[in-house]
Amino acid sequence: MDKNIPLHLQEVIFPSSKPEVSRAIDISWFTRIVLQLIFLTTINHTFSQEFPKIGQIWTGSKTSGKILLPPPVGITDEIVFCVEDVEFKGGVSKENKIVGISTTDPHFKINGKTYIGTPLGEFVNKDKVKSVRGWGHYLPIDEEWFAGFDYQTVSDSSKVLFVFKYKFTYWKRYLPVTLMVHSI
Fold it and tell me: What is the CATH number of the domain that holds 75?
């Protein structure tokens, strides 16, 4: 064996022919791998982010960009965050309260269903599309989420471009639960 290599590494590089030494090295490597997996799982679970709520104070950083939300909010500071590998953008007020959240990720699911790319014609409540001039057309998915369409005209073939959360104060009056069912 090479005297320049530390003793603990010599067994790894030049395994002993003795079975008990060889087995001890295998257990050592197995233990290290298991401990690393436990550590990584714990780290991932500890730092996984919960989904923020509208009205919650944002304690994270803001981007240098701006985001356009429906009136009365309008243009506001932008935030970006990821939850379960889905990127979301949102807007925060001057008081750092979250005022809107959206995503264009086609893998994002609401109540177990994906909506990005879904044509308007596949929604049971398609006749309930509302419009905000200069911003876009939208349709409720449930009591929290809305499907966003182009700001120009919409038809049955218009596809959902993004989904978003926003507090429309007047929607509560027009949002019966039975109209929110997606037909897919």
Answer: 2.60.460
